[in-house]
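Sharing a chain and its predicted structure for anyone who wants a worked example. Both blocks are below, sequence first, tokens second.
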Amino acid sequence: MIHRDQLVAACDHQLQSLQFKDYTVNGLQVQGRATIKRIMSGVTACQSLLDEAVAWQADLVLVHHGYFWKNEPVAITGMKQKRIKTLLDNDINLLAYHLPLDAHAELGNNAELARRLGWRVEGCLDGKLGEGLLWTGRVAESQSLQRLAQQIAGVLDRAPLVIEAPGVGDVDKIAWCTGGAQDMISAAFEGGAQAFVSGEISERTTHIAREMGIHYIAAGHHATERYGVQALGEWLASEYGVEHCFMDIDNPA
């Protein structure tokens, strides 16, 4: 059991959330009850996750994708009203971390993806480790693009979309950024990577990969970002004795 404000302060400090310029509010987004015993985590604060949290009697919902994004309509109507009403009616807190949870050197999405896939982290191409979003390193052993894609499919339980760059050959050096980071592919190429992995793909990404000469794997926005929030939830459970449950709301994107 922990007071909400103490838990939020611990997360803010652990993730250094104030260092990031983001597209949303990092931290407590909707205030609920003051005492936290049960935390349900998930990738996105969708209605299905909130309904699961209500059924489980969670005190706090912890997510990577929360609310109040830059340039979204400010009116609390329709879908947004229903979601926020669910939280308020049930006195449930909503705690969300976006870029800070991508970047964290131990608990973040990029760190967790590398750990699960056995990649050796060498640093970031856009800043210090723990601050940058475009990570780089080495696969466990030099391998074909097809073998790498098979490994990713096995670990993430999702078949990735694979774009092969002619003439590049096997993969040793790799760059990655979870989620919607497909436009980092040019920086990945300039950083010497033979393959770049992110969550989403755009139409232009295929042509960039083929013409620049860098393999590309779109492994799924949701699939690549399931792990940071789980790691943060487990850290909170270990440090503060709260009960943590991760709920995976299926999303093929």
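Comments welcome. The two ends are 35 Å apart (CA to CA).
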